[in-house]
Amino acid sequence: MTVPRLLAFAGLLLLGLLTGAAGALLQAASWSWFPGGLLLSLLALGALCYGGVKALDARSAGMVAGAGWLLAVMLLTTTRPEGDFVFGAGLGSYAYLLGGVIVAFTTVIRTTTSHPPGAGQGVPRLAK
Q: Are 108 and 59 in contact (CB under 8 A)?
């Protein structure tokens, strides 16, 4: 692994952390935004994972971005000594937590398995 590639993976981890923190705040920002903020947060996570896989041409790049998101979400789910917390008990919070895991790993899997080997070479898969 080269140094620029290692820095790219570290950048994806940092972007995953930022996406997780921003999404946690956005999904619960306002009840008038309820479906929009949640969908925007999940879309940002999917785009980050997809972009990481395509940019570095490695499934692990999307997994690193998803791991950064998961780390941020896990840190934000813990309560503080003052009693403050980011995630409340509600449909939006649970949809963000479960939906984020599904979006991250589904995006990585679909991105890396959507093109079988030899797909772009003009060779027919089945002879007629």
A: yes
Amino acid at 61: A
Nearest to 68, CA basis, from 22, 13, 125: 13
Q: Which two tokens stand for residue 84?
A: 């403050």
Please tell me the distance from the alpha carbon of residue 21 to that of residue 26, in angstroms, as a whole number.
Answer: 9
Q: Which of 39, 103, 92 is nearest to 70 (CA)?
A: 103
DSSP 70-85: HHHHHHHHSPPTTS--
Within 8 A by CB and 6+ apart from 87, the residues are 24, 28, 76, 77, 93, 96, 97
Tens-place pLDDT, residues 53-79? 888 888 888 889 988 988 998 888 887
